[in-house]
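Consider a typical record:
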Amino acid sequence: MTTTSEKRLTLTLEGPFARINLTHPPLNVIDFAMMDELMAALGAVEQRSEISTVILSGGERAFSAGVDVAIHTPDKIEQMFQKFHGLIGTLAKCRKITIAEVHGACLGGGAELAMVCDMVYTTEKAKWGFPEITLGCYPPVACAALSALVGQKHAANLIFTGRTFSGEEAAEWGLANEAHPEGELQEAIRTTLDHLFKLSPAALSVAKKAFYAWDSIHLDKGLARAEKIYLEELMQTEDAKEGITAFMEKRKPVWKGR
C-alpha cells in the first residue's frame, strides 16, 4: 500500500483499489487547489492498469460542502467553470469504477461530484442538497444530469427550492445506491468491493465506456448549455451578484428580481 498526501487530499493505492480522500477541513470546500489536486490524483489512478475501483471520500463531518463561494464572482467564474466542469468531465469519463462514500455535508458542487460517480453509498443522516438557488445562482451539473438520476419532478424540487435532504432520501430517490447507519457503511461498501475485485479491470473499463455511451453525450451537451446560460444570462443579473455578495458578507440577500 502506498499513500501520497497533498494539501487538499490523500491518495492511497492498494492492489486493485484506490482511495482519494478529501482533507480540507472543516468541510472540504472545493477551491482551485483542490480541483487541481483531484485532477492530478485521477490522472495518476488512470495510469495504473491493475486498479479497477476508486473510492472518493471525505471526513465524517463532510464529504464536501461544495465549491468555494468566493470563486463564483464575475472575475473568477469562467476559470471556475473551466476547472470544476473539467474535473466533473474527467470523473465521469474515468475508466475505473468510481464509488462516492458520503458522510456529513454533501452540498452543491460536493453533491455534484458524488452524483457523477458510478455508485454512491451514504450514511442515512448525511446532509445532501443543491443550495445554489439560495445564492441567486443554480447548479449547472445538477441541471444537466440530476433528472436522469432522480426523475424530472424530484430534480426540479431540489434545484428550484435548494432544500436539503437526508442520505436516506437520496437513496430512496436514486441519487445513492444505498444508505446505512454510520457504523454500517464501510461493511456495505466492502461487499460491493468484494464483487468488483473478482472481476477483470479491463472488462470493467470497457463495460463502463459502453454503459455511458449515451449519457456522456447528454452530459457534455447539457452542461455546455447550462454553463452558457449561467455566464451570458444569470451573471448579468443584479440578483446573482447580490446573492454572492450577501453570502460573503454573512447577511440575508435583498432580491430585486432583475
Observations:
- The two ends are 55 Å apart (CA to CA).
- The chain is about 45% helix and 20% strand.
- The mean pLDDT is 95.
- The longest strand covers residues 9-14.
